[in-house]
Specification:
Layout (H helix, E strand, L loop, with lengths): L2 E4 L9 H16 L3 E4 L13 H11 L7 E4 L5 E4 L11 H13 L3 E4 L3 H13 L15 H9 L5 E4 L6 E6 L3 E6 L7 E3 L7 H11 L4 E5 L6 H11 L5 E5 L2 E2 L15 H7 L3 H9 L14 H7 L10 E2 L2 H14 L2 H14 L4 E3 L2 E3 L8 H11 L6 H6 L2 H4 L17 H17 L8 H15 L3 H13 L7 H24 L1
Parallel strand pairs: 1-2, 10-11, 12-13
Antiparallel strand pairs: 3-4, 5-6, 6-9, 7-8, 14-15
Helix pairs in contact: 1-10, 6-7, 9-11, 12-13, 13-19, 16-18, 16-19, 17-19, 18-19
């Protein structure tokens, strides 16, 4: 049975590359009817950020990724764990790592290193000055076991290092990159256990992957140079290594590694900006993997059906923000009215345009419920935006009780305020006498107002420009008929009347 894992460190935000790694693991598991496991690798206590695990779990849930085993948040927001191979948090497994580390030491696959931080820094500077590769010079590897044991028992601090072969090659078949080979002599004797009793990533992840029955390790390209060390550890323990698949890097437009310096890299940033989870997942899925179909929009089930490791590219994938905007725009257009209301509302509340009071949405404490108006606003604006946040950013005029309008902007640029006031007076009279049902259809409103302007022999510019500004306070906005439909007859009449007063 296929068993894969996503094993992040709780060091802050969730990188967009981490989302892709988690997604590929879940797609692979679902495609093969296997299990997707989450493991928290928190052994580097210096980099641990409180709250990161909770944030990670909320982000995975938002993105629609479902974990079969591992930590999860219960209904009260507390971290719980599920599965038979736990605990799934490495800091809760320290006894296991100590036990296996002692076995490596006893079997001659590891050795104690007593070098101080000052000694290691001096070694590094000397190697850099000489133009040599920066790596441990293995001086403690020559210690007799009895001497090493004596110093350890005397309380001298030490780390445990892997005893890499000094000659030959370590080779393996990578599911993405094919046959990969490393010269053993160029690989450092990596630290396995730190002096504080915590394991490094290398030891802990090999032990956990074996004990949790992981069959495929699908991870970022940056771990490729570490794979020979991991394979050697598997051999030292007498275990069969899993299949490795190293994913291509995500790149900036200039082909550099995707970094915070050149744009947002945190999933949370895209969530706050108003990207839909299904759009982000669809976009990320195609960054480095090519399905067989000649199209770009895929549901989660379609991604599962198509996914395989053979079609993952070796070359890095450029993160194209404009392409992500296109995906998000298409997904926003496809949402049902109910779902759009649900996902857009938080942005209107955040902008201070609306507040929830019981079952109602209010723009003003003593105003009417704005739920129906918001639905109409969303129906108008969904075609014009790339992100949900943009729906609220330019929509304040829809909900204003007393709309600010600059009287100098009301007349058409080739007209006068006297002409504008005359045209608005006629349009006000029409707006007041139209049946209420006319305001249920923007096309019906357009027919009535455009027909009225034509009947009077007026120009659209002299008449409809002032109407647009009167209803929105803006020179650029949706059509006045759409706005009148969205805000309703009462507000339409009120705003037209106010504009006439401003011109007098």
């Amino acid at each position: 049975m296929v068993r894969v894992r996503f094993a992040p460190s709780p060091t802050g935000y969730v990188h967009i590359g981490s989302l892709r790694t988690a997604l590929y693991n879940e797609l692979f598991a679902r495609h093969h009817g296997g299990s997707f496991i989450l493991r928290i690798e928190d052994t580097d206590r210096n980099r641990y950020v409180p709250g990161s695990v909770e944030n990670l779990l909320r982000t995975l849930e938002w993105a629609g990724l479902t974990v079969d085993e591992g930590p999860y948040l219960d209904k009260d927001g507390n971290i719980r764990q599920k599965g038979e191979s736990g605990p799934y948090v490495q800091s809760e497994r320290l006894g296991l790592y100590k036990e296996y580390a002692e076995k490596l030491l006893a079997d001659g696959h590891a050795y104690r290193c007593f070098c101080s931080a000052e000694t290691l820094e001096s070694m590094k500077q000397a190697q850099a000055a000489a133009g040599r590769a920066i790596m441990y010079d293995k001086r403690c590897r020559a210690h007799e076991p009895s001497e090493s044991t004596r110093r350890a028992e005397a309380g001298e601090p030490f780390v445990l290092r892997l005893k890499m072969p000094e000659t030959g090659k370590t080779e393996f078949a990578d599911a993405v990159r094919g046959q990969v080979s490393f010269e053993n002599g160029l690989i450092d004797d990596q630290v396995l256990m730190k002096s504080d009793g915590y394991p490094t990533y290398h030891l802990a992840n090999v032990i956990d992957d074996h004990l949790m029955g992981i069959t495929h390790v699908i991870r970022a390209e940056e771990w490729l140079p570490s794979t020979p060390k991991h394979i050697l550890l598997y051999r030292a323990f007498g275990w069969e290594p899993p299949v490795f698949a190293h994913l291509p890097l995500l790149l900036n437009a200039d082909r550099s590694k995707l970094s915070k310096r050149q744009g947002d890299v945190a999933v949370e940033d895209y969530r706050r900006a108003g990207y839909l989870p299904e759009a982000l997942v669809n976009f990320v899925a195609l960054m480095g993997w090519n399905p067989s179909a000649d199209r770009e929009i895929y549901s989660k089930d379609e991604l599962v059906a198509e996914f395989n490791l053979e079609k993952i590219n070796k070359a890095g994938a450029v993160f194209n923000r404009e392409k992500l905007d296109w995906f998000n725009r298409e997904y926003i257009k496809s949402l049902s009215a109910e779902r759009l209301l649900d996902v857009a509302l938080p942005f209107f509340i955040e902008q201070g345009l609306l507040s929830r009071v019981g079952e109602n949405l209010l723009a003003h404490p003593d105003g009417p419920d704005m739920t129906e108006r918001l639905k109409r606003v969303l129906a108008l604006e969904r075609q014009r935006v790339d992100r949900l946040s943009q729906l609220a950013e330019g929509s304040g005029f829809y909900f204003a009780e007393d709309l600010p309008v600059d009287p100098a902007v009301i007349p058409w640029k080739k007209s006068t305020k006297e002409v504008a006031a005359d045209r608005l007076s006629g349009l006000l009279e029409l707006a007041e006498r139209l049946p209420a049902e006319t305001y249920a259809d923007p096309k019906a409103l357009e027919r009535e107002f455009v027909g009225y302007v034509a009947e009077k022999g007026w120009t659209n510019a002299d008449s409809l420009w002032p109407m647009r500004v009167a209803l929105t306070g803006l020179a650029a906005s949706p059509s006045p008929f759409e706005v009148a439909w969205a805000i309703g007859q009462v507000q339409t009449v009120k705003r037209l009347r106010k504009a006439i007063t401003l011109l007098s």
